Amino acid sequence: MIIVFNKEVNGSSLTGNVAVTGAPSFSTVLSTDKKVARLQFATDLSADQAYTVSVTTGVTDINGNALVPDISDPDNTDPYEEDFLTAPSTADLYDPR
Questions:
Q1: Of 9, 22, 84, 94, whose CB is crowded by the most CB atoms within 10 A?
Q2: Cα→Cα distances 72→1, 67, 79, 91, Å
Q3: Cβ–Cβ contacts within 10 Å for residue 94, how many?
């Protein structure tokens, strides 16, 4: 999984401020341009499972400025939160005909 930012981020600010609800533990690797964070999970995500990825205002750019909350959702105080669903297992897709 990757998260793309429009500014260079402080890599150390990602720790504890990026979460994937219900997912196994993960490490975060920041690209050399400091705009892409790659989440590397300790184990595979479960098939056909809903997850929520959240990035809090604790993530800062290289100048120490916090991310701005998502203004399109007035009830959301975090700058980014998104739900996603993983694909079904390959066993569920197999058609023995």
A1: 9
A2: 24, 14, 10, 39
A3: 7
Q: What pLDDT digit, counting tens, does each position of 19-73 carry? A: 999 999 999 999 999 999 999 999 999 999 999 999 988 999 999 999 877 666 6
Distance in angstroms between the alpha carbons of the first and the last residue of the chain: 34
Give the burial string for 39-58 (b: 16+ CB within 10 Å, else e). beeeeebeeeeebebebbee
Distance CA 35, CA 32 (A): 8
Tell me the whole-structure pTM to 2 decimals.
Answer: 0.79
User: The tokens of 67 are what?
Assistant: 């991310």
Do residues 36 and 30 lie in contact, with contact meaning Cβ atoms separated by under 8 Å? yes
Two tokens, residue 93: 């897709």
Task: List, in sequence order, the alpha helices (H) in the chain.
Answer: 90-93
